[in-house]
Specification:
The protein is an alpha/beta fold. Helices cover about 30% and strands about 20% of the residues. α4 packs parallel to α9, α6 runs parallel beside α7 and α9 packs antiparallel against α10. The structure holds aspartic acid.
């Protein structure tokens, strides 16, 4: 495990009366520059990022940095990178007031969701941000996103406790609970939405925190990290005309342990006999199904329509109003712990990190 920042720096961050923030640069558009020969966007050195945002030096904070080497496009984000982020945060947890993760936007919601589960009873802000335009470009959205994310990571309440001790995404004027987010736009600055939970803060001239919506750690318990994540999950999106051979093949993927079923409307599925049979057989083989809706907003309500009854019979668990990103990473996290399937079902049904409305 590489040491993100020197012991000397960490200790002086801890002794300092100024807020200390650790900025972790994983890659993504925010830190990219155009290769003049090929015209393609490539990652550049993090030192250049500081050069591009001299405003960072004006903060009365101690800002330490850690850069992924090499930085990655977030399409290459993996469960190993998540574990690396968790290790970095854990290793530096007592030395900093908050953490900002610069991340490509494409898979930022997956990482934010995964980290929310892997960092249990989190007592400090972990704010992910990035940008749609590289930070070196004139019209970049990266500067505002970065500067405000740092301010949020350092923000305190009157009693001195962190304002937002949660894994969040800050993007274009909104602070959103990470495991509630979805990337909704490929080229607008307003790239993220949280359809089923209001913003934790909105940003204009002031940063207005919705304090009653922010989760706080249980003071009787300590911060705990989890590194085990099992990627043997898949997503099966239903559509009219879906064939048995497709469903059969998906449910026979070697090693498969859990399926996020993206159903219609309030959680409905075809009533075809073969469909019920495939599900039932897979469930008998120990595969766990979680039902989420293909709609962007709203919740699954199993049992509301007759068309969801076969799912109940096959033991499918409701994913409530979970995003796909959250349902997948929650399953990866839970099955990574090798718990008995009944416990995984019970925990899927529980609101662990503010990820579902129950
Ligand atoms: N492809 C980039 C990434 O996700 C896009 C971005 O950063 O916005 O890494």
């Amino acid at each position: 495990m590489p040491e993100p920042v020197s012991n000397k720096e960490r200790e002086s961050a801890m002794r300092s009366h100024r807020p200390a923030v650790l900025l972790i640069y994983t890659g993504g558009t925010i830190g990219m520059v155009k290769n003049e020969e090929t015209g393609a966007l490539e990652n550049f050195n993090f030192d250049r990022l500081i050069e591009e945002v001299p405003e960072l030096r004006r903060f009365d904070y101690r800002i330490s940095t850690y850069t992924f080497n090499p930085p990655i496009d977030s399409s290459d984000m993996s469960i190993d990178h998540w574990a690396k982020l968790v290790r970095i945060i854990n290793f530096n947890y007592n030395f900093f007031d908050g953490f900002v993760i610069l991340h490509g936007t494409d898979t930022m919601s997956y990482t934010a969701s995964a980290l929310s589960f892997m960092l249990e009873n989190l007592g400090k802000p972990v704010i992910l941000t990035g940008s749609q335009l590289p930070i070196g470009m004139l019209r970049t959205d990266g500067k505002e996103n970065l500067i405000t994310a740092i301010e949020i990571a350092a923000a305190k309440r009157q009693d001195g406790s962190p304002m937002v001790p949660e894994v969040c995404i800050y993007f274009k004027d909104k602070l959103l609970r990470g495991n509630r987010t979805t990337k909704i736009h490929a080229d607008r600055f307003n790239a993220f939405r949280s359809f089923n939970y209001p913003p934790l803060a909105t940003v204009g001239i002031n940063i207005e925190y919705n304090e009653s919506l922010i989760r706080r750690p249980d003071t009787d318990k300590s911060f705990k990290v989890h590194l085990l994540v099992d990627p043997n999950v898949t997503v099966l999106t239903l559509f009219p005309g879906i064939t048995q051979s497709l469903v059969h093949s998906v449910l026979h993927i070697p090693g498969l342990r859990a399926v996020v079923l993206r159903t219609f409307g309030a959680g409905n599925a075809p009533q075809l006999a073969w469909f019920k049979q495939e599900l039932k057989e897979a469930a008998d083989r120990g595969i766990l199904f979680v039902n989420i809706t293909q709609c962007q907003a709203g919740s699954v309500q199993m049992g509301l329509y007759e068309t969801s009854l076969p799912l109940i019979e096959a033991g499918v668990v409701s994913g409530y109003d979970s995003t796909p990103e959250c349902a997948i990473t929650k399953l990866m996290f839970l099955i990574g712990h090798n718990l008995p399937i009944e416990e995984v079902r019970m925990l899927m049904n529980s609101n662990l990190r503010g990820e579902i409305t129950k």
